[in-house]
């Protein structure tokens, strides 16, 4: 549902929480989750507010699942600083949080003479950005490393540290850790308006009023609107940029050992071909500007174009079945760089325009925002020994969702295999339906478990998954009615 | 179960082909036959086909799929077949080694021969590249049947049915069973594919049939709210509905082979077999709809039974080894041929026919040639997705063809 449709919703009277929070993060996308974690670990009392019933429901629900080094980010940009910092922190914390990381490297491949000529600049930029191990490799070496690549590849810049990760379990783990250390999450809770009295914000939401000293706008695709509605102005406008993707069968994942990138254009990084952490092969995204903030439809002609482009790069894709197609929306603005602004007189921080590197940059963005905030003299008592997320079965399994890690189905007593294509066990599904960030919708359940997301797309298991999930969804519906 | 005891034949998939093969193998005196089934109930697709007609060929009477599946399972158990439920095969390895997953964890087994019988499923929305919003309420017939017949769920009230293959008839029946009222049947071709049941049944249920119409867009914000169809004259029409049933476009569930070592035929999407159902690794055989999209349960049952006979011969070292292979190659307008090759065709055993399929309605001449010599020809009309059989005994001088040259199958349109 779009904000404009919901604007007529009335805020619910009464307080949703009696406490005054230090920070209210609006929007539980990957950036919001990372920001909530950072501020919580720094000692702030954090509320995170999300209008959807599950987190990651906007821009964060669909991306190319790459952890970028920042080799091609604009020089001296905030984006570069955040992506580099984000990368560094992810590599430091992923093991503790049980998150996968596969450093498979990337090749920026030149397919014609002009692109070949551009490789020097790409390498030089990478070096300037601090990615010193980026290097140019010959067509011959490239063919050895990527034997399935089309023979007309002329050479490449190799960036060894580019990596693939799980785009959903990462933000789940960030938020789980925040919650474990005291943050509070409010789901199905939309901010309608707000009053600020020079000290405290009273955020009027569909679930009641939330009081907070500071607001951090992480509303992604709706960031400019939130600024306008609550502050009366926004220094940026969101123009959503749609990216469509095609996912090939797991049998195709061996056709690319690394991330295959094109020489970028000023507007987009271009079409990526790479294996995913779940063992599929991805081709995408497109870059289509549109006005709608919710329309993530796909279209046949574009998908056919993607398949064709994929086959042009990797001819053996020709006979590979398609597992999934989807589209994501990037919250692009009129500017190239991230739009991170602090308004001290309004106790407001706006984190906007995180257009395509949100997953890579999130942890770095969170640090950057905290630094800005503390530079104003805001201080909390840092948590010295932050708790790790509770070892719920699901978190324990998050790290195992990756194709190359040991998975729940390999352990005893997983119940039974419910989703045969993605090998999702009953225990995994039940874990996702319980706990602090339990799934409240099918979409949320899919993101947490991957059930029904494999090659049959639910032909064999959707009724079974629905049966298990519905009993939990209905339970929480009943509970909600009772509370009201 | 006794782990030390050698498994003679392991069968992957407890559908009609797998169960019938297992029963036949026991009848032929094979000692230990194990059927591996990943679901917690055996029977395969017919389990959730609550309608008729099943069982004519096998039991001489008309049964619902559900009853038929139960009967098959009972026959297998009575014959002494072991059925291991909730047992997923996750790797097929060279030489007959399988990696299994059960609630106890992973386990490896070996068998002297393996019959691969994982059947078929419908092509998904994603794989069909259908445009539009990514919303809830888009299902294949198989998923709908499971919801209705196995779990008493009602995913929508007024869906559209896409496609008019035989399975569309089952979709209509399933809807009617659950008091779901479809609002349209949409077929891209100018003719209904499964003519008698769908053309007869749709008007009976008062479901409008849109021929020469293509689904071009699914619309909705959370759930399906409408679809757009495009007529062959370019006219675009919006149909309000709350669900989409994607019927047919079957594809063998051959991912185990794809991820493993068996050779796959890109035309059928199933494993390449010779006339004994034997795969590129001769320890493996394949039977049923894994071989091609798509046949009836009865056909698969019969195929499983036949192939079991050749497996038994092979176990007794009485089957010729897979050495001289004459390839069967199809021209562009022929969708597929099964088997894809013949092993030493001089002996008169193995499948009696070559099965062919076509994608569209055509009239003309079917020609088989070997080394530029016509060995078979016949005038005929072909219908999309219907079987055409060429009897091997009708092929001229089969015994004298050049085994090292392929048999080419062509269709010359009149």
Name the CATH superfamily assignment of the largest domain in chain A. Answer: FAD/NAD(P)-binding domain
The total of helices of chain B stands at 8
Shape of chain B: globular
CATH architecture of the largest domain in chain A: 3-Layer(bba) Sandwich
Gyration radius over CA of chain B: 22 Å
CATH architecture label of the largest domain in chain B: 3-Layer(bba) Sandwich
Could you tell me the CATH topology label of the largest domain in chain A.
Answer: FAD/NAD(P)-binding domain
Largest sheet of chain A: 8 strands, mixed
Number of domains of chain B: 3
- What low-confidence regions of chain B span 5 or more consecutive residues with pLDDT below 50? none
Bin the helical content of chain B.
Answer: 10-25%
CATH top level assignment of the largest domain in chain A = Alpha Beta
User: How much of the residues of chain A is beta strand, in percent?
Assistant: 15-25%
Structural class per helix/strand content of chain A? alpha+beta
CATH H-level superfamily title of the largest domain in chain B? FAD/NAD(P)-binding domain
Please explain how this structure is put together.
The complex is a heterodimer of chains A (484) and B (414). With 484 residues, chain A is α+β, with helices and mostly antiparallel strands. Chain A folds into three domains: 3-61 and 168-237 and 335-374, FAD/NAD(P)-binding domain; 103-161 and 239-330, 2-Layer Sandwich (D-Amino Acid Oxidase, Chain A, domain 2); 406-483, no CATH class. Helices cover 31% and strands 21% of the residues of chain A. Chain A is built from 13 helices and 21 strands. Chain A has helices at residues 3-6, 30-41, 78-93, 113-128, 139-145, 169-180, 223-231, 300-313, 358-374, 393-398, 426-432, 442-449, 462-483, and strands at 15-26, 46-49, 66-67, 106-110, 135-138, 155-159, 163-164, 184-186, 191-196, 201-205, 208-217, 241-248, 259-262, 272-275, 281-284, 288-289, 322-330, 339-343, 348-352, 417-419, 424-425. In chain A, the strands form five sheets. In chain A, strands 1, 2, 8, 9, 10, 11, 18 and 19 form an eight-stranded mixed β-sheet that branches. In chain A, strands 12, 14, 15, 16 and 17 form a five-stranded antiparallel β-sheet that branches. In chain A, strands 5-6-4-13 form a four-stranded mixed β-sheet. Chain B is of the alpha/beta class and 414 residues long. The longest helix of chain B is centred in the C-terminal third of the chain and has 19 residues, at 297-315. The model of chain B has no long low-confidence stretch (mean pLDDT 94). At the A-B interface, helix 8, strand 17 and helix 13 of A face helix 4 and helix 7 of B.
